[in-house]
Amino acid sequence: MAQPFQPFPPPPDVNGNVIFKIKGALLTLRDRRVLIDAAGNPIVTLRQKMMSAHDRWQVFRGESVEPNDLIFSVKRSSMIQLKAKLHVFLANNTKEDVCDFRVEGSWLERSCTIYAGESSTLVAQMHTKHTVQSILIGKDNFTVTVYPNIDYAFIVSLIVILEAINHEDDG
């Protein structure tokens, strides 16, 4: 059974300091990305499970892809969707009858909301932050609001997966 994920400390400030970066997508049989902290330490590995009807992704501790290091998995709630709806299952939720978290939103609109399970309890929100840089050179900037007691790396991982699934749909 996987050990509980140790929360990553909150960012030191809101002055635009880099907290996380993504390494990848690595050219392997499985689409794989590594979330690293500002010092370059691997936090989690995000791996797309190939041949999956619902775009399943798995997230592992550090750079591992071993089953005992699985933290959570993410899949689309259905194969055909106009707006993204992802279900998140923690590693110990092996039956997957009810999701532990869900992501709803639209990458095209650059916004999403993350809820606790099937409830209306918000845990995080993301939306586009319009700046001169984003308008003039087309570089996206986002505002992500993470509610208390929610892990920052967890939320960033979900946003990266949402973006990856959107690019699959475009291509």
For the record, what is the CATH homologous superfamily label? Answer: LURP1-related
- Which regions are unreliable across 5 or more consecutive residues at pLDDT < 50? 1-13
Strand portion: 35-45%
Q: Given the C-alpha coordinates, what overall shape results?
A: globular
Into how many domains do the coordinates divide?
1
Distance between the termini: 37 Å
* Structural category: mainly beta
In sequence order, what are the helices and strands, one letter per element?
Answer: EEEEEEEEEHEH
For this structure, what is the CATH class? Mainly Beta
Task: State the helical fraction.
Answer: 10-25%
CATH topology: Porin
Structure, described:
This protein is mainly beta and 171 residues long. The chain has one domain: LURP1-related (Porin). The protein has 2 helices and 10 strands. It has a 10-stranded antiparallel beta sheet with strand order 1-2-3-4-5-6-7-8-9-10, covered by helices on one side. Strand 4 and strand 5 form a beta hairpin. The longest helix has 19 residues. The radius of gyration is 16 Å and the shape is globular. The termini are far apart. The N terminus is likely disordered.
Layout of helices and strands, plus pairs?
Blueprint: E1 20-26, E2 32-37, E3 42-48, E4 57-61, E5 70-76, E6 84-90, E7 101-106, E8 111-116, E9 122-128, H1 132-137, E10 142-146, H2 152-170
Antiparallel strand pairs: 1-2, 2-3, 3-4, 4-5, 5-6, 6-7, 7-8, 8-9, 9-10
